[in-house]
Every structure is written in C-alpha cells, then in structure tokens.
Amino acid sequence: MESRIQRVRAAFASGRSRPVRFRLQQLEALRRMVQEREKDILEAIAGDLCKSELNAYSQEVITVLGELDLVLENLPEWVAAKPAKKNLLTMLDEAYVQPEPLGVVLIIGAWNYPFVLTIQPLIGAIAAGNAVIIKPSELSEKTAKILAELLPRYLDQDLYVVINGGVEETTELLKQRFDHILYTGNTAVGKIVMEAAAKHLTPVTLELGGKSPCYVDKDCDLDIACRRITWGKYMNCGQTCIAPDYVLCEPSLQNQIVQKIKETVKEFYGENIKESPDYERIINLRHFKRILSLLEGQKIAFGGETDEATRYIAPTILSDVDPESRVMQEEIFGPILPIVPVKNADEAIKFINSREKPLAFYIFSHNDKLVRQMINGTSSGGVTANDVIMHFTHSALYPLEVWVSIPLCHSGHRLSRSCCLSDHLSRQPADLYPPCLLRGLPATHGKGPSHRPARRSHQGLTLPSLTFHH
After folding, report:
1. Calpha distance 144→148 (Å, rounded)
2. CATH assignment of 213-393?
3. Catalytic hit among 50, 237, 241, 419
4. Is 43 known to be catalytic?
5. Are domains 2-86+93-207 and 213-393 of this chain identical in fold?
6. How does this protein lie in the membrane (predicted)?
7. Within a 13 Å sphere around the CA of 89, how many CA atoms are in the beta-carbon half?
8. Domain ranges of the chain
9. Which of 284, 283, 44 is nearest to 143 (CA)?
10. Cβ 316 vs Cβ 273: under 8 Å
11. Reduced to 3 states, what is the DSSP secondary structure of residue 261?
C-alpha cells in the first residue's frame, strides 16, 4: 500500500498534473468515459441498489456530466492568478494570489450513490491539479469494480489510482500520509477518518449524515408538500443523506399528511410497490435489520411490509412518534418517515435546536415571514423552502471556482462560504418529480438528458467553512 501511494506522490512531484491544459484533457477524458461507458455504469449501479436505468441516470449520471461541462468551460478563468489588494507599503509591488494544488488527495466514496459521490469529488481534485487515490465503497461492489476497470483506461494511471477493498484496506490506507482526505459516509467512520488524519495533521472534508427535519405549516399547499416529501424521502429507498428524516407539524395536520403521502406513494410506485421498477432496495442485510429494528414499538400509520430475502422495506409512515424513541435518536437512512406533532413553529424551532445540527432543513409554508423566522432561528447545513433536496443541485449556491484554491470541494460545492437566497418563495407544479414525471422517457445513452424538469423553488444553503493553503 505504501509503495503505491509513493508512486502517486512521485507522479505529482513531477509536475504533470499542474498545467491547465493537462487538467482539461483529463476532465475531457472523464466525460468521454461517462458517455462511452454509460450503459456499463448504469448496470453496475442497478446491480448494487436495484435501481432502474432511468433513476440511475437521473440521480447520478446527469449531475456528473453537468459538472464536467461547467468545469471544462470555466477552469481557465478560475486558475488564473488574481490581483491582491495592496496598501501604502506595497502599492508599487506586484501582488497576486496564485491557486496551488495541495498534492495527493484521498477520496473515500459512499455506497448510497456510489458513482456520483465518488466521481464528483474526483472532478474537483483533478480540476485543482492534484493527484488522487480513489477508494470506492466496498458495499457497492459492482460500482467499485467498474470504477477500477474504467478509470485507468481513460485517466493518467500514475496520478489517479483506484484501490478497492474492505475495512482492512481502508484502515491501511488511513495509516498513510495524504495532503487532503475527503470521506462521505456515517459519523462513526468519519470520527475514525478524522483521528487517523490528525496523526499527520492532514486536512479533512467530511460529508456525513444526520436527521434532517421537515416542518409542514398549516399555511401551505399540502398536496404539493406531500408529493415533494414523498419523492425526497423514498427516493433510493430512503438512503439519501439529505432526505427528510422526520416531519414536524401541528396535530391537526398529521392524518392529512399520512393520507396524502399514502396516495402519492401509490401514484409513484403503483399498488404493488414491491414490483415497481422505480423502488430500490436496502443495500445489505445488516442495514435491513438495523432499519427494521427502528420500527419496534412504533405506531405504523402506513406501510411496514418487509421481505428479508430481497431486502425490501415498503415506504412507511410512523405517527405520534415519541421524540425520545430510538427512531428519533439516530439517522434512519431508510424508507421510514416519523411524524412528530408540535404545537407551532416556535416549538418546532426549539425541538430542532435541542438536537444535533441537521445536514438539511425543509420548510413548507406560504408565509415568508415564518420561513425567514425558521431559517434565522435554526442552524443546518442547508435550507430549502417549499421543496426538498434540490439545494444540493443548485449551482448558484455552490460556486465551483474555489476548486482552484483548495484540493477539492465535495460535489463541486464551495465549503468556505455561507450562502442563502432571500428571493420570494414560489409555488410549483404538483407533478414536479420522478418517477411519475420521467416514466416512459427514452434512455439517452451518452447523449445527456432529453428532458428538463420544471423550475424548482428557491433554496438557501449554509455550509461549514474550510480553511486552505496557497
């Protein structure tokens, strides 16, 4: 292991990864890989998560291609030296800031979106001129295998190396010295990564999970709110780090929310959800049993059906959930939606603030003042009003040009700045989301998306700052 890392470090020391032209060539090769081997990539994702070809394309491939296009178009401008402000003592000097890559970056990918959550940070690392060790998740075995097969065929084999394996290989990797480590996954492993990095004073970017609340106000379009919550919660069988983890609402809304989500689930996935090509499966038996244990002692208002042989857990809603129950103490990361009744927005704010800061926070309300109150009164990784998840795709909230200043930014997101949109909140069409919107569209192998969904509501985002060196 150490010798492989040293070879990558020697390749970086040669200076080959630094020229902008070389970076662009590698990014173009990466785009060519995605386009030419799209079918193989989609099959691998489907094999790991029982994901339909259309869902795999819309949830993973589209984002990668979009970010590649954006970086290829803007990278020369981003890497250019920027004039530095001068004072009376330096006014006659030539002063500028020149972004500089850090060196060898370790990317530890995630299994829930095994392609996009590995390739997106790789795009950033290449754009910044770094060498990269890529460690895909061993749980998404088929995607890990296809990445190990394809990346060396398209990218520089000395600078960008894939290392597959399980806990033993990852543990050995973390003993080595890197110039930056990016890990996407759960908090427990994140602590292990941080501890290992501290021994070398290696800077770390952690993309972890959490319990993302969703507040539904009585002054909202409940039909639209429930459709969007349904899409965000049950997409990828609930295995999305920024999915709505639980719902807060006034007691009078609880039964209505249950009924409307129930209707939407049947519309999205049909009467026989288990046979729906749009509904995925839990990644493995260990996670299946963990999620199942969260149902113990709960009041199931909808769903609850399971099949261990196929790792199937039906879309499930829990009502009148005790805030102290186990399902409210850990990230669910599965298709279970608890509803916790609260008196009003003020109580919801207190509830959220009494717990760990969530990765995302969702608010459904027509009352702009209330939305602003909830944003200002809480702290979270991202906030979206009258929608869910979509702040993750909003490039205006994540300026990509900082890629040239730090070794990488996860998903191209700027980690050194806080952003929040204050634009008016808008109502969107109720049939905004797949699978109902995309069902029946033709496959687009290598040609990009053939359908552009309706414009979504405005989002706000805050992210923790990340220090970096030039």
Report:
1. 6
2. 3.40.309.10
3. 241
4. no
5. no
6. Single-pass membrane protein
7. 0
8. 2-86+93-207, 213-393
9. 44
10. no
11. helix
Tell me, what's the pLDDT at 394?
66
Per-residue pLDDT tens over the stretch 438-464: 544 444 444 544 433 323 333 333 333
Closest CA to 211 of 364, 352, 358, 340: 358
Q: Given this model, what pLDDT does residue 401 score? A: 40
Q: Which of 38, 141, 207, 331 is catalytic?
A: 207
Percent of residues, the chain, with pLDDT higher than 90: 74
Distance CA 311, CA 290 (A): 12
Judge whether 69 and 144 are in contact, CB under 8 Å.
Answer: no
What is the rounded distance in angstroms from the CA atom of residue 118 to the CA atom of residue 109?
Answer: 5
Question: Which band of pLDDT confidence, cut at 50, 70 and 90, is reported for residue 142?
Answer: very high
**Environment class of 157 (CB within 10 Å of its CB; exposed 0-12, middle 13-18, buried 19+):** middle
Which letter does DSSP use for residue 84 in this model? P
Which conformational region is residue 157 in: left (phi greater than 0), alpha (psi within -120 to 50 degrees), or beta? alpha
pTM: 0.85
DSSP 8-state assignment for residue 24? H
Q: Residue 460's closest CA among 421, 430, 409? A: 421
Instruction: Give the lowest-confidence range in 298-312, 358-372, 392-406.
Output: 392-406
Annotated catalytic residue 263: no
Q: What percent of the chain has pLDDT over 70?
A: 84
Q: Which amino acid is at 179?
A: D
